Amino acid sequence: MSSLDVRGLHKSYAGKEVVCGVDLQVAPGECFGLLGPNGAGKTTTLRLCLGLSDPDAGEIRLLGHEVPTRAREARAKIGVVPQFDNLDPDFSVAENLLVYGRYFGLRSRDIDRRIPGLLEFAGLAGRAEAKIQTLSGGMKRRLTLARALVNDPQLLFMDEPTTGLDPQARHLIWERLRRLMQEGRTLVLTTHFMEEAERLCTRVAIMDAGRIIAQGTPRALIARHVEAQVVEVHGPGVETWLAEAKALALRTELAGETAFCYADEVEPVLANLRRMEGPGPGLTYLHRPANLEDLFLKLTGRDLRD
Length: 306
What we know:
Elements: E1 4-13, E2 16-26, E3 31-35, H1 42-49, E4 57-62, E5 65-67, H2 71-75, E6 78-81, H3 93-103, H4 108-121, H5 137-148, E7 155-159, H6 167-182, E8 186-190, H7 194-200, E9 203-208, E10 211-216, H8 218-225, E11 229-234, H9 238-245, E12 251-255, E13 258-263, H10 267-276, E14 284-289, H11 292-300
Parallel strand pairs: 3-8, 3-9, 6-7, 7-8
Antiparallel strand pairs: 1-2, 1-4, 4-5, 9-10, 11-13, 11-14, 12-13
Helix pairs in contact: 3-4, 8-11
């Protein structure tokens, strides 16, 4: 049985359809990433799955419960990490965990027994009595993650869990999320960090304009939709160079002052660039394998979304 099974999901606001026939299945124990540009419908889809909004059409089963009719029973078994931290500034670290646990009907003494382990998991051991305003942004984010685990959930929903964090804090949260997967928990996350999705997710779905436009494992999607190798080139005269180099690659793009050359074999592109090397400023380049960001940009475009 799937941890989350969504079929034919539709939702409109003010006459505009923002979720257009979405189908998703999330298996127990996997990390599933829902990716897309701003306004793609990701957060609305999560709200529908949690029973916080009613769909116009479609079926949702969350941990075996029909949503929204039995959303309350389903939410008792899940944890949620919202996009923005909503910790209570009037309470200490431990009090935030205690009060949140009481929402699930847990007894205070049972929550108290869980608090030391949750704080250790969040890298906040010794901070139980600290006030929220004394914590760094990374500490607050880790506490929000620990709070989502207070009811020992089977499934964890996370909306952009590492937005605004420095690399050290982001890597620590990634390590904690991997630990949760090793424990057999199921994770569903949205993120704008393609590196995050590629590192953590067993499968991803890419959403745009309310529809799922691609779904599968990161490596399989990259292999299916994107050339194997990428050369990024920038510097004086890059547009002139690209006009001459288009015949050397399968696909090229110019984004701002950077040219992207995509090919399964990029040695002709690299050889051309090496011949141009010399004293003084010139073109600089980076050769790398294709990644999830290349896939994302190919499928959803490079235009800004507001």
